[in-house]
Amino acid sequence: MSRTLEQLLCQPLCTVSKHYPAVSDFLAANGLDLSDFSFEDLVRSLSDEWFAGAGTTPDVLLEDGAAFFAGLLGAESIRQIESLEVLSGFDKAGCPEACSLMLKPGDVTCIVGPTGSGKSRLLADIEWLACGDTPTRRTVKLNGSMPDDSFRSSHSGRLVAQITQNMNFVLDMNVSDFLLMHARSRYLENAEDVVSEVIDIANDLSGESFRADTPVTFLSGGQSRALMIADVACIGRAPVVLIDEIENAGTDKRRALELLIQRDKIVLMATHDPLLILQADRRVVIRNGGMSAILATNDHERQLLRQLEEMDSSIQQARSFFRSGKSLTGVESLGNLSDNRE
Ligand SMILES: Nc1ncnc2c1ncn2[C@@H]1O[C@H](COP(=O)(O)OP(=O)(O)OP(=O)(O)O)[C@@H](O)[C@H]1O
Ligand SMILES: [Mg+2]
User: Fold this and answer.
1) What's the gap in Å between 118 CA and the centre of ligand 1?
2) How far apart are CA 206 and CA 223, in angstroms?
3) Does pTM top 0.90 for this prediction?
4) Which residues line ligand 1 (CB under 6 A)?
C-alpha cells in the first residue's frame, strides 16, 4: 500500500472529497454519508446491525474502499504524462531508423506512408509500450524513463485510447448503460449528464441517430466509431489517443479530430487523408517499416489546405447527394450538388 493511499484512507472524508468529488458517490452507493471521519474510522464506527442490513462485513467494505481510492490515485497518475518518446529501432530490412519521435500533450501528429509500410505497427508499439520486444525493436519512454512491468500491467487500458476502423461491440448492453459503466469506472461526477453529452456528440458526428436505449450491438460501424470518439473525448481519461484511419468511417472526421484535440491529449493518427495530414502539427513519414523523417506542417502548406478544403467540401456535397437517394439524371454540372434537386 503506498503512503498516499494510506493518507487517503486516514484523512477526513470531507477533506478527501474536495479533491476527489467521486468519494461522495462511492459513499452514497454504499449507503454512507460524507463526514469528518476518515474512511477507516467511518467503517469502525458502524454497528453490527448496519453491516447485517447492508449484507457486508467491515473487511469487505475496507477492501472495497481501498480499491476505490487506489483507482482514484491510478486514474490521476496516468493523467500526468508530460512526454512520450518512441526511440528508434529498425526497419523491415534491419537498417536503423532515421529518427526517434517525441510526443507531448496537445501535439497532433500524423503517420503517413504507403499501404503496408508500418503505420499501424508504430501505433501498436506505443499501445504495447514496446521495449525492444516488437518486430521494430523500438523502445517507448514515458516522462523520460522506461515504464516498468508493474506500470504496464496496472495501467493497461488507461494510458492509451485507440480508435480503429473496425470497431464493433459484442456487449449485451444499451448505449446509456455502457457509457454509464465507463463514466463510473472513471469516477466522473454527474455521470448521467456526461453520458447524454456523449450521445449527443456521437449522433452529431455520425449523422444517423441512435438512442440511449439502443443496444450497442445494433450500432453500425460508423455509429460505433462516432460513439467511441465521443466517449474518448468526454469520458476517457487516457492521455494518449491513437487513431488508425478514421477517414472513411462515416463520421465527420474533422469535427472528430477537433473534439479529440481540445482535451490536451497526445494525438497520433495513421492516415492517408491530406486534409487530416495538413491539420496536424507534423507528420512522421514511414518507409519500409522505419521512421524516415518528421515533417512540420509549414505556413505554405496551411495556405494550400484551404484549396483542399474546398475540394473536400465538393466531395462531401456529392456524398450527401447520393446518400439521400438523389439521381444525376438531368444534372449538367457537378458544380453545385447541394441544391435540393429531386
Ligand atoms: N520495422 C519493421 N520490422 C518488421 N516488420 C514490420 C516493421 N514495420 C512494420 N512491420 C510489419 O509490416 C506489416 C505491415 O505493417 P502495418 O500493418 O503497420 O502497415 P500500414 O502502414 O498500417 O498499412 P495500411 O496502410 O495498409 O494500414 C505488419 O505485419 C507489421 O508488423
Ligand atoms: Mg494500417
Assistant:
1) 3
2) 6
3) no
4) 90-92, 113, 115-121, 135-136, 270, 289-290
* pLDDT tens, residue by residue, 55-76: 999 999 999 988 888 877 766 6
Domain ranges of the chain: 3-79, 84-301
Residues forming a β-bridge with 287: 290
Residue 167 alpha carbon to ligand 1 centre in Å = 20
Annotate 91-158 with three-state secondary structure: CCCCCECCCCEEECCCCEEEEECCCCCCHHHHHHHHHCCCECCCCCCCEEEECCECCCHHHHHHCCCC
Instruction: Please tell me the distance from the alpha carbon of residue 154 to that of residue 311, in angstroms, as a whole number.
Output: 46
Q: Which pLDDT value is given to residue 155?
A: 58
Q: Which fold has domain 84-301?
A: Rossmann fold (3.40.50)
pLDDT of residue 342: 46
For atom 15 of ligand 1, the residue with the nearest CA is: 118
Number of H helices, E strands in the chain: 14, 9
* Residue 309: all three cell numbers together: 478544403
- Give the whole-angstrom CA distance, residue 185 versus residue 216: 18
Give distance in angstroms: CA of 111 to centre of ligand 2.
Answer: 10
- 167 contacts 222 by C-beta, under 8 angstroms: no
- Long-range contacts: 254-257, Cβ < 8 Å, 24+? 254/279, 255/204, 255/205, 256/205, 256/226, 256/229, 257/108
Q: Which ligand is nearest to the CA of 164?
A: 2
Banded model confidence at residue 262, pLDDT cuts 50, 70, 90: low
pLDDT digits (tens, 9 = 90+) for 157-186: 578 888 887 767 777 899 999 999 888 777
Closest ligand to C-alpha of residue 122 is 1
Beta carbons of 83 and 239 less than 8 angstroms apart: no
The CA distance from 135 to 188, in Å, is: 38
Beta strands in 27-77, from DSSP E residues, in sequence order: none
In this structure, the number of other CB atoms found within 10 A of the CB of residue 247 comes to 17
Predicted local confidence at residue 81, as pLDDT: 83
Backbone φ/ψ region at 330: left (φ over 0), alpha (ψ -120 to 50), beta = left
